[in-house]
Amino acid sequence: MGGAGGASGLFPSLLGKTGIEPTNPSGPFPSLLGKARMGLTAAALACLVAACSADPIPTATPTATTLPDTPTPAPSAPQTATQVETPIHPPIPTPTVEATITPQPAVPTPAPATLTPEATPTAHPATPTPTPSPAPTPSPAGLPVGTVTIGSASFQVEVASDSDSRTTGLSYRDSLPHDAGMLFLMPSEGVQTFWMKEMRFPLDMVWIGADCRVTGVTHNIPFPEADTPDSDLPRYNSPDRTLYVLEINAGLAAQLNITTGAQAAFLNIDATAPAACP
After folding, report:
1. Which of 101, 168, 233, 243 has the fewest CB atoms within 10 Å, i.e. is most exposed?
2. In whole angstroms, what is the distance from residue 275 CA to residue 264 CA?
3. What share of the chain is helix, strand, coil (3-state, %, to 5)?
């Protein structure tokens, strides 16, 4: 081995591996680049030659390194699953709630009511209370007033007991209250004659004898037309001997069932009258 020839023959591949290519003389810096590359090549070659001529570097033989023995842990006993016994507790008895019955106070049963018979009052015959007679209505003519009853009918009457009151009677009046009338007290018992001079409403005439019984009734006597001469006025005579004449509104005698033979009574009639029916 020797010489440059050997070097050039030995490292062609190395030179190629250095990446040094032939200098391009046509580059911008041919001399500088060439020198740099030449220097690098020479240095590389020198290093390689030195490496080849030197003794070979002993190759270290690997020596087995013995590590200190590590104590092998004793195999542990295989773990056996131990069954843990769960303590069984006896069941807790559920307390039984017993209903507490509170004794209620006894309600006393009311004793059956004993009905005490009440004394039945003894009925006494009712004492009739006398009905007070209504106060008589004053007479428009200032005549005394009283009451005449015939059967169940009752009339408040004006009493004509003298000649003037008997001659005038109910003339010149327009009407008469429904339950009113006029009683004529004649001077003596006999056949009596009446007329309707200056009357303005119709009348019933009830003829009463001295014995206070009805001797007859003249119904619905009409009133005359105004200015009828006295000679043309009708006359009305009693059917029998009469002492009293009662004049009332027309139609009442039939309505109240006043008939011949009925009993009449006078109340509060002037005592100076020739007679007064009880």
Report:
1. 101
2. 13
3. 20, 20, 60
Q: For the chain, what is the total number of helices (H) and then of strands (E)?
A: 5, 9
What tokens appear for 16 in the block?
């190629």
Do 171 and 194 touch, CB atoms closer than 8 A?
A: no
Question: Strand pairing partners for 158?
Answer: 145, 182
How far is CA 95 from each of CA 84, 91, 98, 116, rounded to the nearest angstrom? 32, 12, 9, 60
Q: Which two tokens stand for residue 30?
A: 């041919």
pLDDT tens digits, one per residue of 209-226: 999 999 999 999 999 998
Please, what is the angle between helix 3-10 and helix 30-53, to 10°? 100
Q: What is the pLDDT of residues 146-163, one digit of tens each?
A: 999 999 999 999 999 999
How many beta carbons lie within 10 A of that of residue 25, not counting itself?
9
